[in-house]
Amino acid sequence: MHIANPIYDVIFKYLLEDNKVAKLLLSAIIGETIEELGFSAQERMVEIDPVAKDKPPLTVCHFDFSAKIRTETGFKTINIELQKAKLQSDLMRFRRYLGLHYQNLDNTYLAPAGKKKSKKQTHTVKPREIYCIYFLAYGLDLPRRPVLKVNYKVEDAYNGEEFPASGEFVSGLHHRSWIVQVNELKKRRRNMLEQILSVFDQSAMTDHRHILDVDDESFPEAYREIIRRLRKAMEDPKKRREMELEDDIVNEIRDLERQVEEIKKEAEEEVAKAEKKAEKNVAKAEEKAAKAEEKAAKAEEKAAKAEEKVTKVERKVADLQSDYDAQAKRIEELEQLLASKN
Fold first, then answer.
1. What is the dihedral of CA 318, 319, 325, 330, to 10 degrees?
2. Where is 136: in which H helix or E strand?
3. Three-state SS at 249
4. pTM as predicted
5. pLDDT (tens digit, 9 = 90+) per residue, 178-232?
6. I want to staple 177 with a disulfide (CB 3.0 to 4.6 A). Which of 8, 132, 316, 325 is the partner?
7. What sign results for the dihedral spanned by CA atoms 3, 7, 11, 14?
8. Separation of alpha carbons 6 and 83, rounded Å
9. How many separate helices (H) and strands (E) can be counted in the chain?
10. Average of per-residue pLDDT across 25-37
11. β-strand partners of 70
């Protein structure tokens, strides 16, 4: 059977807008039974080129759900945050959005402050537990498995003794995560979840990338509503056109990212050249400075030798002057002697 490719954001969103389908898919991923599900799709518009008004903006969808889950002791209400990415640049968006999710007061509930109910019963605000689901359409530094579950645990830092990861402090400040790696599905059907996620397996792509060819007979009967929903999307001309627009936008983003990478690479090369040139100039300057220091040292040595010669000459002149003065005195004494005899 041919179905619309849910790797496209527009189809993914269309799939999850059906409450029954969303409950089926999310329950299968988290491994818990969702009795009630409230949906709120948060969208952000990103202009690829604000100048070009004829180009459609990229719509990035965050999927927020409020889910009532059946437990062994009754029910609990949690928040499910589902995000999907086709570009690696979306990773930082995950972090930013999760931070906003923790701050949002809508993701809390009121609980009785005391144990006994009374007319003056007070309430306190409690954080809801958050489940995070990520659909990745590209490879990361993760184990190569279709679905990874990330769960917190509580243990004694001294001896590693593990305790149940329960209580509002742990659940309120930590979150469980499921990572679906679309590229790792590749016809893996080892359990019920991988059979359900086979609708995302891109190896089933037909000659047209918007359409996947799936075996609806081997698809779990209880989850065939997912297949029917995707089949309906494929038959909708508007959805087909929206997928084409999404292709154009994503390709343009990738082109822009390549251009940015090329500019960064060119800038890095220019910086490297400038640094190399600066290093050469510094080396030349240091070489000139060394030569100048050597010349200065030689000049100082010559000056010292010249001063030594001058000192010797001055001493010789002083000696000659002393001899001259002695001879002049002797001559004067002889002249006085001769004069006295006459």
1. 180
2. strand 130-136
3. helix
4. 0.65
5. 999 999 998 888 899 999 999 999 999 999 999 999 988 889 999 999 999 999 9
6. 132
7. positive
8. 13
9. 7, 12
10. 95
11. 75
d(Cα 33, Cα 35) in Å, to the nearest integer?
6
Place of tokens 């251009």: 259
C-alpha Rg value of the chain to the nearest Å: 43
214 close to 204: Cβ distance less than 8 angstroms: yes
Long-range contacts of 185-192 (CB under 8 A, 24+ apart): 185/146, 188/146, 189/218, 192/28, 192/220
Residue 132's region, left for phi above 0, alpha for psi from -120 to 50, else beta, is: beta
Beta-carbon neighbour count of residue 137 at 10 Å? Answer: 18
Query: 325 CB contacts (<8 Å, ≥6 apart)?
Result: none
- Residue 192 to residue 28: CA distance in whole angstroms: 8
> CA 183, CA 189: separation in Å to the nearest integer?
14
CB atoms within 10 A of CB 148: 16
* Residue 119 DSSP class: T
Query: How many angstroms separate the CA atoms of 212 and 105, rounded?
Result: 40
Three-state SS string over 181-217 comes to EHHHCCCCCCCHHHHHHHHHCHHHECCCCCEEECCCC
CB 217 within 8 A of CB 227: no
Percentage with pLDDT > 70 across the chain: 79
Q: How far apart are CA 126 and CA 92, in angstroms?
A: 28
Tens of pLDDT, residues 218-267: 899 999 999 999 999 999 999 989 988 888 887 887 787 788 889 989 99
Note the pLDDT of residue 48. Answer: 42
Give, in order, the Cα–Cα distances in Å from 13 to each of 10, 41, 238, 335, 339: 5, 8, 14, 135, 141
The encoded tokens of residue 205 equal: 């792509």
Which tokens sit at 164?
């149940």
